[in-house]
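User: Hello, can you help with two protein structures?

Assistant: Certainly.
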Amino acid sequence: MKMMIFALVTLLLAAGSASARLPYEYDVTGIAKTDTLNIRQNVHHGSKPGDAKIVGTIPWNAKGVLGTGKFIRIKKAKWLEIRYRNLRGWVNGAYLKPLPRKGAIKFPTALHCTGTEPFWSLKFRDKSAEHKIVGGAKARYSVTRSRKAFNRRDTWVLSLKKGGKAGTTLALMVNTDRCSDDMSNLIYPIHLYLLWPEKRPLTGCCTVVR
């Protein structure tokens, strides 16, 4: 297990990006005082973002726009998934300025992770996690430990325990801003490797829950 973790850390760090931007908080920029920034319901590859339904707007001087880290590139534009107050949707990233990182980056307390072949999900909320493979039952875990890489600000290992069961499942996460589900043109912020005591590893991508 230790050798596998070392190999995966080496692989993911080699693919890491200095532009990773946890915690994904933005100020609006480049909008005229008489205008607002549109929040679109959905954008996807091959579509015209301008045709997507507008679900709300953000003031020209708004601060504290929260992103999930997920984005998609459509032609030359980068569209970000965000939440502003009670509004959720997609915004043209050209009008959002990421806030600078300050000090240590805290690991998000809520994440939604997914993977394919087989299709599965893993939801983190505070000190608990819920794992489900399509067609199977849900499994609940407690997050017993979260360790940050000694010399990296974007890498964590979480220890998951299933009540009364022997063995610990490890969740290795690296914030690279380039994880793909291989089924869409969406890009996710966090790579995930799930290392089970007696099962084959699962790989997937995670977004921050907002």
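That covers the first. Now for the second protein you mentioned:
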Amino acid sequence: MNAESELAAMKTVHGALSELDEGARTRVLRWAAEVCRVDLQNESVVRSAAEEPCSVRDMADLYHAVNPETDAERALVAAYWHQVEQEQEQDGFDALSVNKTLKNLGHRVRNITDALGSLMERRPALVIQVRKRGTTKQGRKRYRLSQAGITAVRERLTGEPALENQGER
């Protein structure tokens, strides 16, 4: 395959996906990966060197490096710890684990569900709900950071104010 045909394929895919919402894009890309037999879990396919997890020793280092100011930012940092640093991306994380991590640092969030909800309402969404168990409103939910959420924390680690001005609820 030459570079021109690869670029043409990318333009076609981008055009088709740009009209879909995030959930639909995810479903289409997963389907395409399955049909084309592309292993999306293969780190050499999915992750470039620039996307590697930051080099912090523990959650306390990460928390203090990012220095979150709001409950939503605190939740985002703890979620990043669970998903990226602890490599729990495949199964996602739950609100209880995120808040327990923050509580252990002395920074418990009063209403973790609201904090995660505000991150899901931002555009682009920083957190995505991927599963819910139970039929009641209080059913156990699993979440995953979007690429925008991961980028927001990484930009904050490098000193750029990516979490600010994102519409706190």
